[in-house]
Amino acid sequence: MLKTDVRFVEFVKLGTEFNANACINCGSCTALCPLGIDLHPRTLFRYVLIGARDRVLENTNNIYSCLLCKMCEDNCPADVPIAENIRSLRNYINRDIFGLIRG
Q1: Which of 5, 41, 64, 103 would be 29's cystine partner, CB 3.0–4.6 Å?
Q2: pLDDT tens digit sequence for 71-84
Q3: What is the tens place of the pLDDT at every residue in 85-94?
Q4: pTM for the whole structure
Q5: Gap between the Cα atoms of 9 and 11, Å rounded
Q6: What is the CA radius of gyration of the chain?
Q7: Is 57 helix (H, G, I), strand (E, B) or coil?
Q8: Rounded Cα distance, 84 and 88, in Å
Q9: Apex CA 18: angle with CA 10 and CA 51, to 5°?
């Protein structure tokens, strides 16, 4: 059963610019990833937008595996700020899961 929290995206956005609303699910980001990570950015961002916090946290290793090389972002036809979104997720995990404060 998928639990959702409509406020989750607001927690992720705290102090950051998370924005994935423009994603058109084209798959360009996935095709260009040099790591070939199993989790697609579009899927991860959709989890955030629908409030599927547990699904996002299940993918913490993938979130931290991203090189932030921006190959996906540079080729995104919808101009989704993919690297910034990944940074926002890392900030959320550091702040609210690991209890680290970003300074």
Answers
A1: 41
A2: 999 999 999 999 99
A3: 999 999 999 9
A4: 0.85
A5: 5
A6: 13
A7: helix
A8: 6
A9: 45
